[in-house]
Amino acid sequence: MIVARSAGGxxxxxxxxxxxxxxxxxxxxxxxxxxxxxxxxxxxDRR
Length: 47
Hints:
- By secondary structure, this protein is mostly helical.
- Helix content is about 75%, strand content about 0%.
């Protein structure tokens, strides 16, 4: 789990930057997706 979170911390910003560069001027869609993701996903169950 720690490795996955660490990889996500590296890959997430790189993916966001690549999407921003590919899209060019429209950042609002990417920002809306970033805001919506925490609302539609759920926390993992505690063991």
